[in-house]
């Protein structure tokens, strides 16, 4: 059942990606407004969708059905100044429209739901947004041969105008190299993703502590907030050495991002 659920947002994102790459400008960062205008408004969908921007107090993004109609509005809070966050929110609400409009008439999203990779509907909308904004063919063509470091993470985020967290989770999902991306806070893993070729990891699941002998664990336990790319030895896997590098989020939410690349 869960596998089917995971396939739904990917299927819808790939459908729009094909439209954009075959009939649209095929440029990235993706122009979500232009995609909606071309793909949703004029391509036979059984509902109309419009994006409206304004000042809202209770949400960053919202998908709302106009009562007793097949018209929907995406509401984007212009009080949010982080443009990458707004882009992901816009794509997230489009994900709710594509995947969930038959289930609810209203979806409101805050920073908590936009960072929720556990609750099914929010996780699906996040998956949709990641696949739409960072399509696998473009990501692989441009980044698959790069070493997996914080520098690459930044370049990935800049290329697609996405947050570092979304960029890291997406890249780890499709990279051919044995890599992992770990999001933690206060020494505890919140989310993690590893590539298909990555080995078993000592700490990987939500709620696991960062390995004490890893660079991530050492920095979390100290007052230091800087790390060059370092050899972490066997901190993450008993048999495979790895290198890791860190980035500490500057938004005040306390996130620590760890890029891990295993020896092949």
UniProtKB/TrEMBL annotation:
The IrrE N-terminal-like domain, residue ranges: 68-167
Region Disordered: which residues?
210-233
Tell me what this protein is called: Uncharacterized protein DUF955
Under the heading Pfam families, the entry gives: Peptidase_M78 (PF06114)
